[in-house]
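Hi support team,

I've been running sequence recovery on a batch of backbones for a student project. Most finish fine, but this one hangs at about 90% for roughly twenty minutes before it completes. I'm not sure whether the input is malformed or the queue is just slow. I've pasted the structure tokens below so you can try to reproduce it. Let me know if you need the job ID as well.

Thanks,
M.K.
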């Protein structure tokens, strides 16, 4: 049996969340369910990014005279990207839900197949 490290488990889990979120987006017809799928995929992508920047026994990337240069440090770029992604994801979710409420008031349905104006 293959020993599973925490990195492998997080990668498999986050990739699974990404796939589940995309499957929800492409298979469901309800707009609110599609927004939920978008959020699930967003969380999976964020966990992948955080796991990419993880360093075992790493410290915070703050350079002082007490910290030696040979000590392992975590990469701060994926963490900054994830914080930005969380804020952007929140904004997209809020905008999408506001547009869905506006669409529901006008068309009285949330089913994508019943909204004629969205068809090609």
């Amino acid at each position: 049996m293959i020993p599973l490290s925490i990195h492998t488990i997080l990668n498999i889990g986050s990739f699974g969340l990404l796939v589940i979120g995309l499957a929800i987006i492409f298979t469901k017809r309800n707009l609110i369910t599609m927004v939920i799928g978008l959020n699930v995929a967003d969380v999976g992508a964020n966990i992948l990014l955080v796991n990419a920047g993880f360093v075992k026994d790493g410290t915070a990337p703050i350079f002082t005279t007490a910290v030696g240069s040979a000590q392992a440090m975590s990469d701060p770029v994926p963490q900054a990207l994830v914080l930005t992604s969380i804020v952007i994801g929140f904004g997209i979710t809020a905008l999408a839900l506001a547009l869905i409420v506006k669409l529901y008031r006008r068309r009285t349905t949330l089913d994508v197949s019943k909204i004629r104006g969205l068809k090609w």
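--
Follow-up from support: It reproduced on our side and the slowdown came from queue contention, not your input. Residues 30-53+74-111 form one domain. No action needed from you.
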